[in-house]
Amino acid sequence: MDEFNLIDAFFARHQSRRRDVVIGIGDDGAVVQPAAEHELVIATDTMVEGVHFDSTTPPRALGHKIAAVNISDLAAMGAEPSWLTLALTLPRVDRDWLEEFSAGLFEIADYYHCALVGGDTTRGPLTLTVTAQGQLPKGKAISRGKAKPGDWIYVSGDLGDAGLGLAVSQQRVEVASRHLKRVYDKLHYPMPRVALGQALRGIASACIDVSDGLLADLGQILKQSNCAAQVQIDKLPLSLALTETLEAEDALRYALTSGDDYELCFTLPEQHRGQLETRIAHTAIKPVCIGQVVGGDKGKIRLRDGADEWQFAAAVQPGYNHFNDND
Ligand code: ADP
Ligand code: MG
What we know:
This protein has helices at 3-12, 59-77, 95-111, 161-169, 177-188, 194-199, 214-225, 240-245, 248-257, 273-280; strands at 21-23, 31-32, 38-48, 80-90, 115-123, 127-137, 152-155, 206-209, 228-232, 264-268, 288-294, 301-305, 308-309. With 327 residues, it is an alpha+beta fold.
């Protein structure tokens, strides 16, 4: 099977229903028509075998996840996902693998009405790269840099489950069988918080998706906004899978420092709390307030348990960093 048959068989046959795709797969470049008075948001993420996943990861999960993590970046900006391109580097052509991978990718792309409009296919070590483009009314992008002291800090859902899923898949931790599906789904099939991101337009002061761990990602908001924060560990949303599996301190360590959850972490000025509540009242979205932005040392996060300061017994790394010399 050559490159063109492969593209036809697994990627081009699936024609999107979007009418704003003027020219899709098959030409030198894709042509799309952004909506009037909108801006484009563009995000790219790569997953490399041996770095981001291992050879036991189901190909369907890889297809889902490489699309989901990119769409999650768009969600964190408040954008509506629209178009994807896929750069695929494969060690060999394996039809069963491609069947599953493309099914996983289109499942989530279709769910969010996002069209695959192009890509590139080469031979080499297994590497997946997606570029996602989304649209936003002009001036409505939610950046990381505008949080202010006094703003409330929220997360969109349970933290630490994807990290637990990874630990289970690497046989570092065992979970009860009733929790297996949940932790593997959170690791392999994250659902980007697209509806919430859009609901936050015009009211959140900053937003990020939690890919590297809450402390690391909230830290990015704080550094770029020149602020500090207090986080209430007693308010963190933790699943039963996490709390029934780990000791309390370990559960908190997973919730605060393990990556791949793809929940949104955002800051909200006091005067917009009612608007948030109104906008999400008729949805299943239940963001949880976990703390507050404060002045002080840029990027610093103080942990509190109720009214008391709280610290880990042992030092923790705030999150995952590919170029950390200490690794
Ligand atoms: P070019 O030589 O112009 O880069 P290619 O031969 O690489 O073109 O690709 C042919 C067409 O197939 C292009 O429209 C490209 O966008 C699309 N394409 C290639 N690989 C993929 C892929 N993995 N997924 C989706 N579209 C792809
Ligand atoms: Mg090419």
